[in-house]
Amino acid sequence: MTSLPVAAVGDAAVGTPPAPAVGYVGLATRIVSFTIDAALITFVDIIIGVGAALILSLLHIPHDLRVVLAAIGAAAYIVGSIAYFAIFWATTGQTPGARVMQIRVLTSDGARVKPRWAILRCIGVVLAALPLFAGFALILFDSRRRGFQDVLARTVVVDAPGPSIADVSRAKKRAIYEASRGLPPASPE
Fold it and tell me: Is residue 20 part of a domain?
């Protein structure tokens, strides 16, 4: 039996691979990711809007009530959009657009984003866009490619070429299921 030599205190252990470098994501990749997410949100909202318009066209509703319903619909759109981003960032760190672009939102120390920080990041995205998108210009100059929303919520956007958190969880559940049934483990594809 051979063993690896022991390193002196302060030296790196011999035989251990170096830690992979973190790849921070730039502006163009984020724009494509956001465009995919915006298209998905818009598609769902159009379907809901057309359905609501068809239902309301069949009912005889006073004009004042229609105005109130339109305001409720607008508020639901805003809350739904915030929930879309906040839930994905807080659970897997990836929206569907981020998954396509293989990027992930994490805290500055590499942990999962907590829900309150995800909501704060959504607010930061709006604030970054207000002054002619100047808050996003920080991404071009920051060493970790952080925009205003990232600085505000203490997050970073990194490359995520590996499986998502959900994929890892599914693989674990599948392995447990197969082990309980006495099946041989599935080969990775």
Answer: no
The Cα-based distances of 14 to 1, 10, 19, 67 in angstroms read: 17, 12, 13, 70
User: 3-state class of 171 per DSSP?
Assistant: helix
Residues paired with residue 155 on neighbouring β-strands, in sequence order: 107
Domain that holds residue 107: 27-172
Assigned domain for 12 exists: no
What gap in Å lies between CA 87 and CA 61, rounded to an integer?
Answer: 35
Which residues are CB-contacts of 164 (< 8 A; sequence separation ≥ 6)? 92, 93, 94, 99, 104
Residue 126 Cα distances to 19, 26, 81, 169, angstroms: 35, 18, 12, 32
Please, which contacts does 129-132 make with residues 24 or more away whose CB atoms are closer than 8 Å? none
pTM of the model: 0.75
DSSP letters for 15-55:
TPPPPPPP-B--HHHHHHHHHHHHHHHHHHHHHHHHHHHHH
* pLDDT tens digits, 117-174: 999 999 999 999 999 999 999 999 999 999 999 999 999 999 988 776 677 788 899 8
